[in-house]
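hi got a favour to ask and not much time before my train. below you get a single protein, a line of residues and a line of whole numbers that encode the local backbone shape. could you go over both lines and see whether the tokens make sense for that sequence. a few lines back from you is plenty, here it is:
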Amino acid sequence: MKFPLSDRTRLPALFSLLLTVSGWLLMLAALGGVQFTPTQAAPIHGSMAAFNASPVPKITFLPLVQKPALPNPFGIETHLAFDAGNQITSYTTRVGATYARMNDRISWRELQPEENDPINWDLLAGFESELRTLQAANITPVIIVDDYPRWATDNTVRLDGLPTSCGPLLPERYADFAGFMQALVARYSTPEFNVHIWEMGNEPDVDPNTVAIDSPYGCWGDADDPFYNGRAYGQMLMAISPGIQALDPQAQVWIGGLLLATHYSDDGNIGQPEDFFRGILEAGAAPYFDMVVYHAYVHYSSTGIDMDLNDSTWAGWGGIIRGKAAYLRSIMAEYGIDKPLIISETSQLCGWCDDEPGWLEIYLPGFYDMQANMPARMFPRAMAADISGFIWYPLEERFWQYGSLLDQWMLPKPVYHAYQAFNQMVANATFIGFVPYDLGIEAYTFHRGAFRIDIIFAVEDGDYPISIPQADYIAAYDRFGALITPTLADSAYLLTIHYEPIYLVRTR
């Protein structure tokens, strides 16, 4: 996402020292008693112990790729540092994320401000310490490389005439960038750091005129180009990838996560940003990247309304999560290409919360409650659409539409516990896909040993009763992992399905 430069500074360590129990209690009171339910896993009867302990295969729903896939599909992004034993590392491992998207770490502009300067590796001492911490915590890093030096860019792209490094690389500087990338790969692919995933920029399909001067976000978009300058970006990938692959056969090169705001633009003043990805393929760059990456945010409207499905731009494509994937695949199909997809930024946002009088007390509890539904609703949809992974943005609160897993006191929001419960419930399970129940109900199933785990929710708000034969029923849990006690009648367990997802454990 795009932030002003002042927002890229890391929060001081002192911030975390301000977390007190009394402050937390005051926050709860301000939110009108919003409950941050801890994850629980109490069995309904003895057979649940077998479910929890059953040996099962690793998650198998990741699509086959030519290189090692991600360890699991769940990740987070944080702008704060990973240090041994600190809150950020602990929160990441506890939520079940096994890879971390790292932005604001590598700035080519800062590392090599002048053309003939050697790379200033001293500036990366903190980053290297983070990599060691991630290695010890068994978390896989995804490294974003952007923030080009002004000497390597077309710095005349701004309409206001101000010089900037936020512009596409000059073609004659592709070789310089390739050399810079080779230096990074040679240093960080070693066992000490174990970096093998490189994401080339962040939202490159954004016009430099829409972001701050010297912004590391966007910078490749061009409204006057028929492919929104995607061809130039593809040519850059073709210049840098061979050297990366030669140094590290395990390396994965990802395209920078696409904003992909729309599938169709009819405003001639802004061009066709949706054709940026088509431009990459038009350049012949398909063999030079491994992952198609995009961003997919769901915006909060009101309780009980699924704004993933009802988004005005993407509703006709199946919603934001699946629709953007379908659009990108339709372009790949035009070129006879099939590449796996990753969502490298996702969450549920509340863009208008801070614009309303008394929004904290009035609106935020409802938003937090709706946000907590997202992991168990959106992630299975993504899996069913063969999307290989999703990274929640951000972990910490950055006061950008309140999409974070943690609040401003660095304490877990309801969505953190929901994300944690989802990871625990589907750990080491095999995703099977959509499973039919009744009209108005959406459900997806996983297999884990002798058991099946169904994630069930109402498409829109309402009450939908279901009945499960007693012999098939193992247990049911709410979105936070707390045990649900069903009603037993006529040798069947009765449950009522609402907008909030539940986990139903059954025999296979």
